[in-house]
Design goal:
Shape of chain A: elongated
Oligomer: homodimer
Distance between the termini of chain A: 62 Å
Structural class of chain A: mainly alpha
Largest sheet of chain A: none
Helix content of chain A: over 70%
Number of strands of chain A: 0
Order of helices and strands of chain A: HHHHHHHHHHH
């Protein structure tokens, strides 16, 4: 079954008891996943082969197929793993003021963008050739969870249309700013992040003119001495 | 070669001279294209078959294959046609003031979104299963041309990073607002369009704090008595 270097060697130290074996199977899968994610982060999905993933993880091509079935499944799994990592990073760390948490979240978001540069760009610019409905759903679900996260930080339970559209628009504009930054890198990241926080404040100001709910929210945020 | 109703009958009135024949071939292709675009606008691409397009145009399945090769090619052609229609609509009609043109453009954009509702949503939410790099490129090129259009309206030739990111972000947020509106329709379109124009003004205000170029642009727009 091909080469037995790197990750494969580690497994030999485990014994045959089910619990240990299971752990080792999970770990092996995670190692393949990490190698795949690393490759998908640095290259267009079209340019990553099963062989590349196998080589990077020191495993056989057959083993990658065994765990993931095929490249499309591997890509979907890597994407889900990346989405989970992003969400974990964006979870508020403390009980900070909403706009401070937003600024921190943006910093972590851009760290993520930078670490997964090629994959992020390929995915959101229009996607690789094998992009399927499933992949679109993962992207949408990340956007949706970011929306819920921001709402929770702002202590909003049921956003009216104006607030919902404002927050979704802002998330889209952050995504686009991330793509633009990867493409041009002609502005300092901290400057860009500050600008995006200012965008949120400005957009909420606009929404407040259209919806008393947002006006109330802005007053509440202001009471937190945020602006 | 199947049924000869509708579009097919019209062709019979032409004669065999090359110019007339050519016209008739082009018209036939356009008719198939219009039928395809109509179907792709109202349904997910996955749910549209070559047979549906043939039936809607009163043509044979073989004829659709003859002109377009296959469903993916037909979808790409329909998308290009839709993109061209959108751009034609957004071209400034007169020498209006930039922010008035922006408001008019937004109205026409939302007309387009409404007319192509299902196709717009399916394309931009994550895309149909057969979405390929080519389709992503069409979407990107529309975004890029919208950016150039807005820059021209604002008489900006070389945007600095802050302005470029602001305009791209705004375009992304309009797209997202379009998707949100199709999904919820719980805000009046004119209200939403006004809010998006206000977004632009607010975002330019933020960018002006980061870049003197935008400050100058804002002053110029204000001299046009726009705000």
């Amino acid at each position: 079954m091909g080469s037995r270097s790197g990750a494969a060697r580690q497994e030999k130290s485990g014994d045959a008891r089910p619990a240990r074996r299971r752990l080792s199977v999970d770990r092996r899968r995670e190692e393949l996943m990490a190698a795949a994610l690393e490759l998908f982060s640095r290259h267009d999905a079209e340019d990553v082969s099963i062989d590349d993933v196998a080589a990077a993880a020191g495993a056989s091509r057959a083993l990658v197929y065994h765990y993931f079935g095929g490249k499309q499944e591997l890509y979907v799994a890597a994407l889900k793993s990346a989405a989970a990592q992003l969400e974990a990073r964006l979870r508020p760390q403390g009980n900070g003021r909403p706009m401070d948490e937003l600024a921190l979240g943006l910093e972590r978001y851009f760290d993520f963008v930078e670490e997964h540069a090629a994959g992020f760009a390929a995915l959101l610019k229009g996607g690789p050739a094998d992009r399927s409905g499933e992949i679109g759903e993962i992207v949408d679900s990340v956007r949706h969870r970011l929306l819920r996260l921001i709402m929770r930080q702002m202590r909003v339970e049921e956003p009216g249309p104006a607030l919902r559209i404002t927050l979704r628009s802002w998330i889209a504009s952050v995504e686009t700013a991330g793509l633009d930054w990867l493409e041009h890198r002609d502005i300092e990241r901290p400057t860009l992040e500050r600008m995006l926080v200012d965008h949120m404040v400005a957009l909420l100001g606009v929404a407040a003119n259209h919806d008393p709910q947002v006006e109330g929210l802005l007053e509440e945020l202001a009471r937190d001495q945020l602006f």
